DNA sequence: GCTCGTCAAGAGCAGTGCTCTCGTTTTTTG
DNA sequence: CAAAAAACGAGAGCACTGCTCTTGACGAGC
């Protein structure tokens, strides 16, 4: 036997996968609100009502796609990070930046689903969280590693003092960026949100085609960001 | 006469305004994809088909809402900037940051329409651009003013050289941040995208309630951002 | 006073998510 | 091995959507 699954369970798993595949293809073409259970059923040659045997609602299908998306970008980030020597913290940061950006530009609609405006009426269930923090966890390890190695040397400047109310929050964020002081947590958050801010502008068309060589502009911006974070490039 | 408009034109303008008002209210409650022409008509006590006398399609209504939204945030930013002494460039930057954030948190669905993922199938017409750059223009003047006044002193660090391909792009961006060198353009873009990146994380729930005192965290982050941009705080 | 353009309303088309029922098929149980 | 149980696909149907077309009424200008 290939497995202990019954024939029914095997065909069920196969059909479930096919549904998500078709859905992902529709998502790539028409975006989240173009996702139609009836269209999926039509393309698969089955009745629309049959889809509900596999996904109880459109939102459940959306949740599956979101989790898959988080895992995809998380895996891309993990691979990019693993391809750089661990002690080259600046290189790891740049690899992560480009991995996120490349994935976002290759799957703009999926990216929008993850990091854009939430789908109205849809409330992401809590089980998306583990997948959602995969990329952030990689980033946190980079910052943490660099700090532990003493390779985090931010430019000499007068930074305002971290507000006292941030101490508690920093403790929570430290689950993802372990063993760093509060001011590193702050700089880490700034760089991380800055990365996604730039990518959002690019993917969502805010730059309005004003940048002709977006790759090197992005690369340079993230290099500068690395410097203010304290990484040597 | 209150104006040279005929009675018909006046009631038409009045009805058009009422439609957008109802639409904005629906938008605030249900988000962009919950915007229903039939529901608007129902709430106004008129036939759904009558709406089409005023807006030829749902997308046209959406465009009106988007332009109104850009103007609202633009006006908020302009007012915030004007309330600070022009020579206090750091204060102006912080005022702009908080103005954008406050508006975004007060109108999350409208903000999502402007700076989140684009509505699938909807292509923003070119006449949204003038309204869309109002806030950016204010920001550009702040950076430009600070540079001209010699008040832009970025922290001393080794920044990578600006890539040659960026020269042309910088010229285009300089329409909004006039009279500054290329490296200031880059830092300006980083700070601007960083502002929206942070706000996006907050509005779109990426922080996942990990930050208990979001106002002071945001304030501190933007103060740090100001320092890397070169503004004194 | 009459014509002409503007307007609201209604019916209708094609599409959507979702539910329910009804046979059929497969698995599990006796 | 046969019977009960569970899973399944198909179809009809409900309430909803954006949008179009036609019909009839109302008001402004000649």
Explain this structure to me?
Helix content of chain A is about 65%, strand content about 0%. Chain A is mostly helical and about 230 residues long. The relative contact order of chain A is 0.11. At the A-B interface, helix 6, helix 9, helix 10 and helix 11 of A face helix 6, helix 9, helix 10 and helix 11 of B. Chain A binds a DNA duplex (30 and 30 nucleotides) through helix 1, helix 2 and helix 3.
Pair with the biggest interface: A-B, 62 and 62 residues
- Count the strands of chain A? 0
Tertiary shape of chain A:
elongated
N-to-C span of chain A: 54 Å
Weakly predicted, low-confidence segments of chain A: none
Work out the helicity level of chain A: 55-70%
Short structural description:
Two copies of one chain form a homodimer. Chain A contains eleven helices and no strands.
């Amino acid at each position: 036997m290939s497995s202990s699954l019954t024939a029914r369970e095997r065909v069920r798993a196969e059909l479930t996968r096919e549904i998500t595949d078709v859905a992902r293809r529709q998502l790539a073409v028409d975006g989240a609100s173009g996702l139609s259970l009836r269209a999926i059923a039509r393309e698969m040659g089955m009745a629309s009502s049959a889809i509900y045997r596999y996904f109880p609602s459109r939102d459940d299908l959306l949740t599956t796609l979101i989790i898959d998306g988080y895992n995809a970008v998380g895996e891309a980030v993990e691979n990019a990070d693993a391809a750089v020597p661990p002690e080259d913290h600046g290189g790891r940061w740049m690899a992560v930046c480009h991995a996120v950006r490349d994935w976002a530009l290759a799957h703009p609609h999926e990216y929008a689903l993850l990091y854009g405006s939430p789908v109205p009426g849809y409330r992401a269930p809590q089980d998306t969280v583990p997948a959602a923090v995969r990329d952030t966890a990689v980033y946190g390890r980079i910052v943490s590693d660099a700090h532990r190695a003493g390779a985090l040397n931010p430019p000499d400047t007068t930074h305002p003092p971290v507000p006292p109310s941030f101490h508690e929050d920093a403790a929570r964020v430290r689950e993802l960026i372990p063993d760093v002081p509060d001011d590193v947590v702050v700089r880490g958050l700034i760089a991380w949100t800055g990365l996604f801010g730039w990518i959002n502008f690019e993917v969502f068309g805010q730059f309005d085609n004003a940048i002709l060589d977006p790759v090197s502009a992005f690369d340079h911006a993230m290099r500068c960001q690395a410097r203010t974070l304290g990484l040597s490039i």
